[in-house]
Design a protein that fits this description.
There is one protein chain. The chain is built from 7 helices and 12 strands. By secondary structure, it is of the alpha/beta class. It folds into 2 domains: 113 residues, Rossmann fold (3-Layer(aba) Sandwich), CATH 3.40.50; 108 residues, 3-Layer(aba) Sandwich (Rossmann fold), CATH 3.40.50. The strands form 2 sheets. The chain has a 6-stranded parallel beta sheet with strand order 3-2-1-4-5-12, sandwiched between helices. A 6-stranded parallel beta sheet has the order 6-11-10-7-8-9, with helices on both faces. Keywords: Cobalamin biosynthesis, Oxidoreductase.
Length: 238
Amino acid sequence: MKRILLLGGITEALAIARTLGPQHVYSLAGVGRVPTDLSCQVRVGGYGGAQGLAQFIGDQAIDLLLDATHPYAAQISQNAATAARLSGIPCWALRRPAWQAQAGDDWREVNDWADLTSALQPFKRPLFTLGREPLQHLHEIPPEQFWTLRALDVYPGNDRCEVIAARGPFLIDNERQLFERRQIDVLISKNSGSTATEPKLEVARERGVPVLVLKRPVLPVVDREFDSVAQVLAALSL
């Protein structure tokens, strides 16, 4: 391929970006750290929807759009598929396989925030690992609950919520200490499929703690779909 636009958002995207030469573009939304040691070009920021992305693709003479965004970044993935179609170029996607429940797991799938709020009612000490979304709902915390919220960056909590700034990968012993210290009785998680954050599920299994799993969104059909970096690099023949 002459010129690739790689939409990043997961660890695997950075692994692909490290193989790309200076004619290619690695694009990040701007959340998290921006790498400074890549040979490829790095672009930070949005595009203004599918039309804006299509304009960028045309302006930059992009030949292939590779979507390696987070499994829950459904709108970005939809914009990518639409922009590629408008531009007449192929859209490929790296999509992480979802975690699968194992023996001893108590997983309860929830569809949205309203569904989650209802499922949380019996619990007192939830641990949220959904990113920033719960920050919009701190005023809704019932008086009988105390939330622990883990996010990438520091954010203010309140008298019934403490926000922990932490980045994976997370070690299982540290996760055990967190669950014990805060007496976590329910874990709330996206099904990201990331090995870096999987230890929390192991600890929940060990302790018999239920896991409320936010259902994965439906993602658009693309020209080619991969589930590993190795598959992508083989297809690119880099």
